[in-house]
Every structure is written in structure tokens, then in C-alpha cells.
Design brief:
572 residues, binds flavin-adenine dinucleotide, binds FE2/S2 (inorganic) cluster
């Protein structure tokens, strides 16, 4: 049996697995509504990665704790968080600190993000002799691709090959002498035009950790590897408890071996949905169906062949997922998307429609709906530092300007992995090696012949995996969200509960910039800080006014780029 800890939710005792998140424990007990909004609507686990803030609960009297990012602890008392209620217990106060009293860390190289990309960069730089500090807000290193299993016991499915590869990468980093600090959220990034004193760096970051409080980090150079979060698919009902991202469901399974529900419907675009179907059906869930927005892969056999030539192993893995799905009788419906979601007495009723919009809708019943429509980059720190970006009109996202080794337009700042555009874990790892060596060389460390060969091999691997990704997304090519057809009663801003109708009315009133719509409607003012609504609002503005987004449109990146406890700011 796994180690159990006793916690309570709304006064009812619950057994949780030691090491799992509060969200995993509550989900395992069928608890979906975690907080209520201003309009008294229920919200629950949505992103599962600390971004949406829909899982905020009160823990031991303290409000605003993200259930997805907080581990269970013995005797923890958890309550649903009601809008406007600020907790019942005394919060452990930290002594107020003036900015000059904050502890200052001065690593030679700071890496933000302990995913495959950040860890690979840290290892490369360390091999060249750099003193490296890696920080990550998650409880354990590994990022999204290498999320480790956080629970143990003979009733828990053991780590799989992906887990083991991640553990080996973390071990390699630690053995190389990289310092990894988990549970540290970087929420401020600043660039001095001219440092006031020689001991001041040109770059400065501010971060907070649960017990250590707030700290300043003044590195010689910084590698930003902050990954991505899942893109919104706005349809009526996408804010209901039980609707979550594919990544959230996968995190429950990969880290805590918990299923998001008994019946699970998975919909969206891309191979991650298929992987989740294989994982959850293998774990005992009834996967109702996988709904894929792209047409059947046979529509582009040339792209399938290009994928196979770039990475036969990844194609074989994809075929294995398909085989597992077929063997377990999970149907797959191509060329369809979710069109609406309604709550029923015992779950969700999901309406599907052909991606073209033609034909009669279909309806499926499920407990949980997982939506996975690709990713948007977590580029707030890069933007806050003033790194130049270009808009990619095909993917509708910003891409930082970088040279082949990951150097951004700001001296001493390097970027790689999913925060620069979605290339997947293999591209992130290859680019990590290049950026790690580039940072080392720029910091004055020699890159000897052995490391130069390693660099060359990483460049070749990166190019190969980029070719794979290009062919993959050709195979998975799907029509983009037709923003003009999203109904007025669909929520655009989940946090502030503002619908598309209000956004369109503001545009019609002459508010044609995101900031102006924000002030008129409150879109983007909530705790997710515009991560989900901003791209939708920009698409609406493009649709109405024809103006394409650029690096200065949207909402300005301001500290704190991630929500931070007021007690961590109080002394400032
Ligand atoms: C939710 C999700 C699930 C995914 N699942 C799969 C999968 O099953 N299979 C697959 O092939 N690909 C998957 N992907 C894609 C794949 O994980 C990525 O391509 C790969 O992990 C990218 O590596 P990375 O190092 O760039 O970023 P990530 O692995 O995303 O790592 C970024 C890290 O940065 C940290 N971070 C971000 N902001 C801050 C901050 N301000 N302060 C401190 N730390 C910060 C995050 O906590 C995270 O650990 C998933 C992506 C996401 C977002
Ligand atoms: S589900 Fe926890 S922050 Fe999104």
C-alpha cells in the first residue's frame, strides 16, 4: 500500500497518498468544485500547472492556495474557497523586509525552468565549468515532459520509460554539480540600462519560495526555459468543473497515478491527446473517445514518411499509442471539435461538430472532458526583460528573436524550449545544450574539443527533431479556431467571467486595443493574468480591425508575472 496521510475537505476526512497534490487527492475522491466565483459559479481543476488559478482553496485557514501546486500534508484542513472570503486562520507572517534586506543570490548562471530544456542547458554549462543555479516553481524537477511520480507503494504503477529518462537527467545534473532549487517562483525580471555599481548585475530577478520567502537573484547570465501552457478552446461551458486541459489530466496520472474520473472524453489537436488516451485507458479509465480536429493522418502520407525518416522511434511510439487505444476499444473521431459543454446530473454532456462546421452535431456523455489544443509560450519573463519578439501568424503566438545558440536580443539572456515556440522535449533538450555552451563561452569558459563535438551533435539532433515536428504538425494540421463564430455567451475571460458578447460590444464602442478593452470590460484583470483570454482577444481584434498582433500588443508584462502571496510583498 502507498503511504497514506489523513486530510479533510469541508470537515470530511479523506485519505490521501503522501506526495500527491491536494488536487490529485480531491479528484480521487470525486471532488470537482474547488472554489466559487463572484457569480457563485463552481470552478475546479483546469490547467493543473499553476496557471489558471481556478483550483484556489483555503488550506489550514489560509486562502488562495493552488490545489494543483500544493502537496498534501498530515492533518491538512482544506475548504472550498468562496469569492471575497479571505480565509479563517492566522497566516504565518514573514518579517517584513526592505528590498535591500532581501537575501541576494549571485550565481554565475541562472536557469529558470527545470524541464528537459533547462536541465540540459544547466548540464552543458556546468560541464564547461560554470557555476549554475536552476530554479523551478514545481515541487520536483523535470518540467512537463519529465514530471516524476511523486507517490510510492505497491498499489502505485511504477515509473515508465519517460519517467526513468527524466530521473536520469535530474541525476546527471545533480552529479555534475548543478544546484537545483524546486518550489521557487520567479515573478520579476529586470534589466538595468547601466548597473549603478560594479557589484550590481545588469540582470536581476525576484523570486519567492514557500518557506524561504522572497529573494533577489543577480546572475552573470540567465537562461529562460519556462515552457508553455495549454491554449484555450472557448466554447459554452469550458469553465465548468470537470472540464480540464489534457495536461492537467496527464499530471494527475503521471505524478500521482490518479485518474481524472471514471469516464473521460479527450478532445483537441495533436499527439498528446492520444498519449493521454493510452495512459488513462491503461490505468483503468473508460476513455469515451478521442476527438481529433485534424483529418485522418492518411491524408498526407508524404508527411508521415518525413516523420518516420526524422525519428522512427517517435513514430513507433505514436503507433504504440494507437495500438493500445484500439486494443482497449477506444474510438477515435477525426475532423471533429467540441462545440459546447453542459452540466448534467451525473457529469457532462459534450456536443461535437465537424471541424468544417458542416453536418449534424453529435452528443457524448462523460464525467470529465480533457481539452488539448496545443500550447502558448510562457514568455512573460522574456518580454519583461525586453527581449525582441516576432509574431507567428500561423500559430498566433510570439517567438523571441534568437541566434542559433539561443542568444536573445538582450545581452546575457538566452531562451530555449517551449517558451520560444513549441518544438517538444527533444528540441528543447538539443537547444538546451547549445544555449548552455553558448552561455558558458560568453561567460569566459573554454569549450574544448570534446564539448565542441557534443555541441555539434546537439545541433544535428535539434535539426532532425525540428524536421520531425514540422512533418508532425503537417499531419496534425487542423483548421484554427474560427473566432468570428464563437457565440456571444461563451466566456472569453474565465477569471472575470466576461463573455465574448461584452468583448465584441467594447470593440464596437471603439476600444480597439487590448489594454483599452481590458479597462472597459475587466477582461484580463483576473489572477491568470490574461494567459487564456489575451490570445483570444487579440484574435478578435485582428478579426474585427485587421491589425495583426506584435510584441507590443496584448497586455504589458508586469511584475509579478505569477501571483505571489501578499505577505511576500508586504515589506516592499
Ligand atoms: C501541461 C503539459 C503537458 C505536456 N505533456 C507532454 C507529453 O505527455 N508528451 C510530450 O511529448 N510532450 C508533452 N508536453 C510538451 C513537452 O512537455 C514540452 O515540449 C517539453 O517539456 C518542453 O520542455 P521545456 O524545458 O521547454 O519546458 P517545460 O518542460 O514545460 O519546463 C518548464 C519549467 O519551467 C518552470 N517555470 C515556468 N515559469 C516559471 C517561473 N516563473 N518561475 C519558476 N519556474 C518556472 C515550470 O514549472 C516548468 O517546470 C506537455 C506540455 C505541457 C505544457
Ligand atoms: S488548476 Fe491549479 S492553477 Fe490551474
Amino acid at each position: 500500500m502507498s503511504d497514506l496521510v489523513q486530510i479533510s475537505f469541508e470537515g470530511e476526512p479523506i485519505s490521501a497518498r503522501a506526495g500527491e497534490s491536494v488536487a490529485a487527492a480531491l479528484t480521487a475522491h470525486g471532488i470537482r468544485g474547488l472554489r466559487t466565483t463572484r457569480s457563485d459559479a463552481d470552478r475546479g481543476l483546469f490547467c493543473g500547472m499553476g496557471v489558471c488559478q481556478d483550483c484556489l482553496v483555503e488550506i489550514d485557514g489560509a486562502p488562495n492556495r493552488r490545489a494543483c501546486m500544493t502537496s498534501v500534508a498530515p492533518a491538512m484542513t482544506i475548504r472550498r474557497q468562496h469569492h471575497g472570503h479571505n480565509g479563517t486562520g492566522a497566516v504565518d507572517p514573514l518579517p517584513p523586509a526592505a528590498i535591500d534586506d532581501l537575501p541576494v543570490l549571485r550565481p554565475e548562471l541562472l536557469v529558470i525552468g527545470a524541464g528537459p530544456g533547462g536541465l540540459s542547458a544547466a548540464i552543458a554549462a556546468r560541464k564547461a565549468g560554470v557555476e549554475v543555479l536552476v530554479v523551478d516553481e514545481r515541487r520536483l524537477p523535470g518540467g512537463q515532459y519529465f514530471k516524476p511520480v511523486a507517490v510510492q507503494g505497491d498499489d502505485v504503477m511504477p515509473p515508465d520509460a519517460q519517467h526513468r529518462e527524466g530521473l536520469a537527467l535530474v541525476r546527471q545534473a545533480i552529479d555534475a554539480g548543478v544546484v537545483i532549487r524546486s518550489g521557487v517562483t520567479v515573478w520579476g525580471a529586470f534589466k538595468a540600462a547601466a548597473p549603478a555599481a560594479a557589484s550590481d548585475g545588469a540582470l536581476e530577478f525576484v523570486a519567492s519560495a514557500e518557506k524561504a520567502g522572497t529573494m533577489r537573484i543577480v546572475p552573470g547570465a540567465a537562461i529562460i526555459a519556462t515552457g508553455a501552457f495549454e491554449r484555450a478552446w472557448p466554447v459554452p461551458g469550458w469553465q465548468l468543473p470537470g472540464v480540464m486541459t489534457t495536461g492537467a489530466a496527464q499530471t494527475l496520472w503521471l505524478t500521482a497515478r490518479r485518474l481524472p474520473g471514471r469516464r473521460v472524453l479527450i478532445a483537441g489537436n495533436g499527439p498528446l491527446n492520444l498519449q493521454l488516451a493510452a495512459e488513462l485507458s491503461g490505468g483503468g479509465a473508460e476513455v469515451v473517445a478521442v476527438i481529433e480536429a485534424a483529418p485522418r493522418p492518411t491524408h498526407d502520407l508524404a508527411a508521415v514518411a518525413a516523420m518516420a525518416s526524422a525519428s522512427p522511434a517517435l513514430v513507433a511510439q505514436g503507433l504504440r499509442y494507437h495500438w493500445q487505444r484500439l486494443r482497449r476499444g477506444v474510438p477515435m473521431l477525426y475532423d471533429h471539435v467540441v462545440h459546447g459543454i453542459a452540466q448534467t446530473a451525473d457529469g457532462l454532456r459534450v456536443t461535437l461538430q465537424a471541424a468544417s462546421g458542416d453536418g449534424a452535431p453529435r452528443v457524448l456523455e462523460t464525467d470529465v472532458l480533457c481539452l488539448g489544443h496545443g500550447f502558448d509560450p510562457s514568455n512573460e519573463l522574456l518580454r519583461a526583460l525586453g527581449c525582441r519578439h516576432d509574431h507567428d501568424p500561423v500559430q498566433n503566438r510570439l517567438v523571441p528573436r534568437r541566434d542559433a545558440d539561443g542568444r536573445t536580443s538582450v545581452a546575457g539572456v538566452y531562451a530555449l524550449g517551449d517558451c520560444t515556440g513549441l518544438g517538444g522535449a527533444r528540441v528543447a533538450m538539443a537547444d538546451g545544450v547549445l544555449a548552455g555552451f553558448a552561455a558558458a563561452a560568453d561567460l569566459g569558459h573554454a569549450i574544448g574539443p570534446a564539448l565542441a563535438r557534443e555541441r555539434q551533435a546537439a545541433a544535428a539532433a535539434g535539426n532532425r527533431h525540428r524536421r520531425f515536428q514540422q512533418a508532425l504538425w503537417q499531419v496534425y494540421g487542423a483548421p484554427p479556431l474560427n473566432i468570428a463564430e464563437v457565440s456571444d455567451d461563451t466566456m472569453i475571460c474565465r477569471c472575470e467571467e466576461v463573455c465574448f458578447g461584452a468583448a465584441r460590444a467594447a470593440l464596437a464602442d471603439g476600444h480597439i486595443q487590448a489594454g483599452s478593452v481590458k479597462r472597459a470590460t475587466r477582461i484580463g484583470m483576473g489572477p491568470c493574468q490574461g494567459r487564456y483570454c489575451r490570445p483570444l482577444l487579440e484574435a478578435l481584434i485582428t478579426d474585427r480591425c485587421g491589425t495583426m498582433p506584435d510584441e507590443f500588443s496584448g497586455f504589458a508584462p508586469r511584475p509579478p508575472v505569477k501571483p505571489v502571496l501578499i505577505r511576500d510583498l508586504a515589506g516592499r
